[in-house]
Structure formats: structure tokens, C-alpha cells
Amino acid sequence: MEIVEEYRIVCDNLPITVHITGGKHTSRNYNLILPKLAPATKALITNLKHSLVREVAVSTTEILDPKSINKLKEKFSQRAEAIIKTKMPNINPNVSQVIINVLIQEMLGLGDVEYLISDENLEEIVIISSKEPVRVYHKKYGWLETNIQPQSEDQILNYSNIIGRRVGRQISTLTPLLDAHLVTGDRSNAVLFPISTKGHTITIRKFARDPWTMTDFIKNKTCPANLFALIWLSIQYEMNVLISGGTASGKTSFLNVIMPFIPPNHRIVSIEDTRELQLPKFLYWCPLTVREPNAEGKGAVTMLDLLVNSLRMRPDRIILGEMRRRNQAEVLFEAMHTGHSVYATVHANSVAETIQRLINPPIEVPRNLLSGVNLNIVMFRDRRQGIRRVYQVGEFIPAVQDGGPSVRPNILYRWKPTTDEIIQHSSSLRLYEELSRHTGMSLGQIDKDIMQKEKILQWMVKNNIRHVDKVGEIIGQYYRDPEGTLEQVGYTETTSETKMPVT
């Protein structure tokens, strides 16, 4: 088959070639070009396994502690290298490295699946059963079938047990579902047979090693700099922001991108099912994650537990991974109305739909509480073109409905598909007034502040400053020394001609 693309990945210091293959009349496949092991080499690896089990002492703490895995790999590698040199003093160092790599992956990892986890181009890895090849979701090519296939159902079960042990969880016939994360931070879900009727199944959602930043989103036209500047100002002065969108529209990614706008001296508490947020080092951040119950049904820590507890941690900002239930929403909106700045995601496809989603089951927030939301950003995924865009940016305007308090949407900006631009739809009726009341700035001063922030963002794009910590460093520098930062980026009163319309 024709090789569509070829690139290399590195897994535990071992370079591996990847071929994306396919033709005009055939589907594309993902092929790992793995080292071929002769029967004698396989026998050597088996022998080494027995030797390492006998000679290397491993404590229970090391097995169960995810932070010890790298030290454990190093310990096994050093001992395996010493045994190989003793038995075969003239072995080629490259061959020795391959043997050690395969050995470590089989003993401490997920075998050949480890190579897939090391590929940053993959978003999803799915083991369906031992009867079918592993499938992956490639950022460029979508779903692809690989040339990797589990040897047996027992092997898949063993992988599930390895994942579970690292987080202190069990998966068995009695508890056939496992939701956990790997040592690398990747999210993993396992379902055993017969619940999964084809066989044992594992799904791994890759955790971004190099997360998106606002520089990337401005470059790929997800959101323009002037709109990011407005969001920056809103977050700086503690406006409450909800991010809406459909499945895989980029809600969490956008939430992660805008969090560096928080001032460095504010205490942040984030609450998630699984750790997905990656914030810059300069932020004062305490991440919390939920915990599932053990086999006896005890020890669960729910999102509601963490949300209630977070209010006792003196947070300035609260980030909720996703709002799903009424009790979560009630606590979250109560936090908004008691002076905490709140950021959360919710499934909805427009600003109007966000309101309907919030006031109806299963969330069912009282209408009068929705006025606590200052800004609603709606994400959209165009599946045909494979792009994600900010679809709408709006605000909730207090209104009267059925004789009682309610809210209605006011769209400030919207995406125009024909030109692929985000344009102004209407003027603000509430946001600028709220900003003015919180800051004491006039509308002209707010407009000037937004232009200054836009200039900083454009300067970061121009100089390709895109790493999350480097972006955080620039924003942190702005909070410490705004005049110096504006001078560094070349801002003067006449440099920015674009003005944000105000009312």
C-alpha cells in the first residue's frame, strides 16, 4: 500500500517509525514499524523477566504509587543492562536497548500500546477485543486501524489491572467498569466481557503533552485577538464565565486556554472528573479530582463533595470541569452570588440553548440565579472542514417571564461561516456596565484597556510565544508591570486602530 505519511516517535529512548498507508480505493491504516524479535531473543527476554523478578526488590508502595513508575523503570533497566552485559558482553548497544525497552514495556507497561501512547499525533486509542486490531484517532487522518493486535483477552485484562492498580482501583467480574488515568495523565476507561459483548475493551483518551494556548487559537482562527482581549478583561475583573458547546467542540480546551488570564495572586481551585486542565506555573492553583468508590462501594468522593469543600478553601476562582446535575449547579450558582468567580462548561449549542439547558432538568437552576453569569462563550465544531470556532459570545440579560424573574440572551459576537470570521452581532447591554461598576473605569478606559491587551496578544502571535508556561510568564509580567510590558510589545496610543464598540 502507498505510504501517505512517514514520521518518527520516541518511546523510552527507542525511536520507532510510523507509516500512514492507504490508496485511492482502500482505507488508510496506521502501521508501527517495530523491531522484529527472533525466537532466541524472545527466549532471552523471558529469561530476563525471571531474573529481574528474583533479583530486583520492589515494594508495594512502588507498585501502587504512580509517581514511582519512572524510578522503577530505571531500576529494572539498570539491572537488565547489567545481566545482558554479563551474559553477552559483545552485544550491540542498540540491540541491547531494544531488548530492555521491550522488557520494561511488557513488565511495567502496556506492551506495544505504549508506542501508541507516545505518539503525540493521536487523540484516542481503542482496544476493542483480542479478535480485532487496535484502532486510533489521528489528529490529521481521523479513525485508523493499526497493525497492533492483543494476543488474548487475558492480556487485555492484565492491561486493565495494571491501569487500575496505579490508582488503587480494582476491575473484576463483580466491578467490570473502570474509569482511571495512566501514569502519563491520559484518561483510560475499561469494560470487561460480558458487559462488552465482543470482549474486554480499553479506551485511552490522550492527554495533551503540549496544550493549546491563546496564541494557537488566534493563529488557527478559533478566536480572534480582540475577542480574547475582551475575555481577558472580564476574567481579570472576576466576571463569571460559562463555556458551552457540543461534544468534542473544544469546551475544555478553550477553558484551559483562557485560565492564564487569571491574576497570579488569586487562589484557584479546579474540580474535574479526570485531570485535563494544564495551567501555567505562575498561577496559585489547587487541582481536585473525584474518586470512584472501591469494590465495597465505599470511599467515593463526588464532584458535589469537592464543590462544597472548595468553598471552605478560601478560593478566589472556582473552575468546574463540567456542570451536569442540579445539586452541582445550585452550589456553583450560590458561589457566584456569594462573591466567588466561577468558570464552568456545559453542553449546549447556543447562548439561548444554554439558558434552556440551565433552567430545565436535569440541571434546573432557578431562573433568578442565572443573572450571576456575566459571559457565555459557545464553541462549535465544523465536522466537514474539521475546524473548531467560537460560535457565539453572549450575555444573560435580566427579564420578566410568566410574572417572575428570568433572563434572555444577548449575542455580542457570532461566527459568520461564509467568510470564516467572528463578527460583532450587537452591542453590550450588561457586560460593560458590570465591568465599569466593578473597576470604576469609564467606557473609554475599558475600550483602551482592551486595545492594550489585544496588542500584547498580537505580539505573542507575531513572536510565536505559544508554550503554556511562556504565555503565562508574559501575562504574569503584565500584571506585575503593565507599563513595562506594553513598552516591550511596542504599544503606543496610536498603535491600535481597532476599537471595540461600546454602548
Which helices and strands appear, and what pairs or packs with what?
Elements: E1 3-11, E2 14-23, E3 26-33, H1 39-55, H2 60-64, H3 69-87, H4 93-108, H5 113-117, E4 122-127, E5 135-138, E6 142-146, H6 153-166, E7 177-181, E8 187-191, E9 201-205, H7 214-219, H8 225-236, E10 241-245, H9 251-258, E11 267-272, E12 284-289, H10 303-310, E13 317-320, H11 326-337, E14 341-347, H12 351-359, E15 375-382, E16 387-401, E17 404-416, E18 421-424, H13 431-439, H14 443-462, H15 468-480, H16 482-488
Parallel strand pairs: 3-6, 10-14, 10-15, 11-12, 11-13, 13-14
Antiparallel strand pairs: 1-2, 2-3, 4-5, 4-9, 5-6, 7-8, 8-9, 15-16, 16-17, 17-18
Helix pairs in contact: 1-3, 1-4, 3-4, 8-14, 10-11, 15-16
Task: Indicate the percent of residues in helices.
Answer: 25-40%
Radius of gyration: 26 Å
Q: Output mean pLDDT.
A: 88
CATH class of the domain at 214-488: Alpha Beta
Q: Give the distance, in angstroms, between the N- and C-terminal Cα atoms.
A: 61 Å
Uncertain segments: 495-503
Shape: globular
> What is the strand content?
15-25%
Second CATH tier, the architecture of the domain at 214-488: 3-Layer(aba) Sandwich
Biggest sheet overview: 9 strands, mixed
CATH homologous superfamily assignment of the domain at 214-488: P-loop containing nucleotide triphosphate hydrolases
Structural class by SSE content: alpha/beta
* Biggest β-sheet: strands ordered side by side in the sheet: 1-2-3-6-5-4-9-8-7
Description:
The chain is α/β, with parallel strands linked by helices and 503 residues long. It has a domain at 214-488: Rossmann fold (3-Layer(aba) Sandwich). 36% of the residues lie in helices and 25% in strands. A hairpin with a 3-residue loop joins strand 5 (135-138) and strand 6. Helix 1 crosses helix 3 (69-87), helix 1 packs across helix 4 (93-108) and helix 10 (303-310) runs parallel beside helix 11.
